[in-house]
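Hi C.,

You asked whether I'd gotten around to modeling the 415-residue construct. I have! Everything is below, sequence then structure, no commentary in between.
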Amino acid sequence: MRHTRRASGIIAITLATTTGLTACGFGGGTDEGDGGEGTTLDLLVPSYSDATQANWEGVIAGFEEANPEITVNLEVESWDNLESVIATKIQGGQAPDIYNGGPFAGFAADELLYPVEDVTSDATYADFQESFLSNAEVDGVAYGLPFIASARALFVNDALLAQAGAEVPTTWDGLLESAKKVSALGGGIAGYGMPLGSEEAQAEAAVWLWGGGGSFGDADAITIDTPENLAGAEFIQKMVTEGATQADAGSTDRSPLMDIFIQGQIGMQVGLPPTVGQIEENNPELEYSIHPIPTQDGSPFTLGVADHLMAFENDGDKQEAITAFFDYFYTSDVYVPWVQAEGFLPTTKSGAEVLGDEESLAPFLAVLPDAQFYPSTNPSWSTADSAFKALFGQLATGKTAADVLTEIQSQVDAG
């Protein structure tokens, strides 16, 4: 899945450019497989920022120093080119040994990838957050190594809530009560920022529908019009009709709405880790805090997004070298600096522990074990994603919640 099409994805988190940064192509060095000197691993990765190539070169330099018998041949591509590059390489019988991308289910179905357990030590495998590792499975087998993570949390304008005499909520009912108190302050202030516009309607939908015990389905079936999802959709309408949100919630996009929060005009809104930096840059005097997303019953939950590393089997003669690279990379003193440099969250337990003292990241790290994910391994997810963006905002314009969910489901079923 190209990140230019994934509005809630990692590209939005890094706030970085994704122009092409192409390093040397594959083909350099000798390749004698495991057990022989001169083993070469071909590594194909996307550019997350202008620093991505240098960040990887630093990792590779350290790995090659520790493993002088292995050379890593790096190729960096833009996200726009990545899918066509990997497809061309596979068709030409030149798949990389290690690949950093989003979707992996198709490669697994074609039996091109090593299972993660075959290319990691027991310690490395056990260090992944279970929720992210489960999201990397096809038919119960993990084929993608969880690489970088995103999570969401509730940003709270502490000054507005104090002025309104409102408490930080943990449940939907508490959120409604506190948001209505903040909205009652007047002056254009909104209690809760509800972005149901096309930019990221699927993300706000997940916040509410999943927060009520629903889901969007799994790898086998996309299920939108369910009783569990209806509960969340109906509560969205309750928030809107009772004046707890901004005006025109059905057409408001997340990014401009978050700008309004940053300027101090919204009491609460779900945001991402980069929001911390945006506040520091644009309104450092804002009195705010970060908390878990309220759910129907207060159970912990966050919307997670992850990219993956994966290992192609090719001739099957580089398994040991690939394992050595992954075990080296995922040590906390190598992995955590890479994650920090690119502005992500770690997918490992040890990484979360190292960054646990980072006050701005702590709320996001705390909810990573409870992350839930889009059913991106289902071929129909892209249709569902588009349907949410086009139709979900109707919840704020008078259409019944049941009809909105039914219409989205119909589009998914029609393909």
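If it helps when you're writing up: Residues 153-303+379-414 form a domain with the D-Maltodextrin-Binding Protein; domain 2 fold (CATH 3.40.190.10).

Thanks,
B.
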